[in-house]
Design goal:
Blueprint (H helix, E strand, L loop, with lengths): L1 H15 L6 H32 L5 H25 L6 H29 L7 H8 L2 H20 L3 H9 L8
Helix pairs in contact: 2-3, 2-5, 2-6, 2-7, 3-4, 4-6
Amino acid sequence: MARILGLLVLVVVFAGCGSSPSPEEKFADSVCSAVGDWQDQVTQSASDVKAKVQSPSTGMITAIQQDVQSAVDATNTLISSLSSVEAPDSDEGKAAKQQLDTLATQFKTTVDKSKQTVNGIPKNASLATTASSIATLGPSLDTLATTAQTTITAVQASGDALKDGFQKADSCNRYT
């Protein structure tokens, strides 16, 4: 009986060997989860803004402000998430972290401009004026989603270890 228990302990110990994710995989999982959540929200906001611009109606400005605020909130969450992600302690990791910091800055700038555009529309503006003023918001939000994809691809290409981490991280399946 003691022998069987000893063998079971060895099997459990050896089964656990190698199953721990690498720092690159943990990093990739954190990045892909954060960007994926953000991308889903911004894509939805962009779609909602486009629909509202194509079919102007009373209350449209308030509804678009809410969509833009959702994108702003999602972006602020992403920026916070990317800032707190611990990059692997390597040159690859440092380069990847720098790319993500640059991405976060680009996102913040674009979303802040979108919010300024919406908030700058006079409350008594006509529907045509409103639609014209915000027509660029949808494409701007779409561009952010594309930029996220491009940055993740660039981060993966930072080195073999990171590429492997991104390939192994389940949350990155949408980007590979």
